Amino acid sequence: MAVLYAYxxxxxxxxxxxxxxxxxxxxxELCLLSDGRTVVSVTGELPDQPVQITVSRLVVTQELIxxxxxxxxxxxxxxxxxxxxxRSKYPLDKELYLARISIGSLSGAYEYKQGEAEEVAxxxxxxEQARLWGKEQRAELGL
Length: 143
Prior knowledge:
Elements: E1 3-7, E2 10-11, E3 16-17, E4 26-32, E5 38-43, E6 56-57, H1 62-71, H2 73-87, H3 92-107, H4 116-140
Antiparallel strand pairs: 1-5, 1-6, 2-3, 4-5
Helix pairs in contact: 2-4, 3-4
């Protein structure tokens, strides 16, 4: 499982120093936090790092997850792929229709017609599978 680290890149007149990735794993740069630190998802052991930078392991909090999800192109891609999976079978107008009749049924304002309850349940199951895939992808990145 991946671990999240943060560090601040340091530049001099010749180079920019950044995290040294593990030889036996991978490092995925996720985003730049509002405090200027770069978040990296690392699988494997970190090797010795350049003396110019300090790497610290991050504690995953809801605030951190929210900021990384907002700023990371990797996580935006995962969210987009979840939506694409759902849209491949259920266009947005169909999803909205199913949501409306489901809410109406739950509130007592609408009575399902033949087959609609099963269709709502099938959509819910399909959408939840897509969301679970996204959750698994984020977990692989340490979130």
